[in-house]
Design brief:
With 88 residues, the protein is of the alpha+beta class. 38% of the residues lie in helices and 32% in strands. It is built from 3 helices and 5 strands. It has helices at 11-20, 60-63, 69-87, and strands spanning 2-4, 24-28, 31-35, 41-49, 52-57. Strands 1-5-4-3-2 form a 5-stranded antiparallel sheet. Strand 4 and strand 5 form a beta hairpin. Helix 1 crosses helix 3. The chain is globular, with a radius of gyration of 12 Å. The relative contact order is 0.23. Bound molecules: zinc ion.
Length: 88
């Protein structure tokens, strides 16, 4: 898990995410399933706890507190959905 503080934190992960062109499945608002490079799926949870934005991914990198590209994929979808919700 890591705490999202700004978009620059995601920069490298976004580059990797774009290169990988993976599939992101919508599970529910804030919960997504991202296909990994080996064809396995990682569940990524984006949630807000107080003022903190927490991102939880099942992969090894994220469990060490790293910003993984799965999270970047899920977040790009999540941010779009959150924006739609606010304007709906
Ligand atoms: Zn991950």
């Amino acid at each position: 898990m890591f705490i999202l503080k700004g978009i620059d934190q995601l920069e490298k992960a976004i580059i990797k995410a774009k290169k990988t062109r993976t599939t992101v499945k919508f599970i529910s608002f804030g919960v997504y399933s991202v296909k990994g490079t080996k064809g396995n799926f990682y569940t990524v949870e984006c949630r807000k706890v107080g003022t903190e934005k927490q991102v939880i991914c099942e992969c090894l990198g994220a469990s060490r507190g790293l910003v993984c590209w799965h999270s970047a994929c899920a977040l790009s979808l999540h941010v779009g959905l959150a924006r739609q919700r606010q304007t709906a």
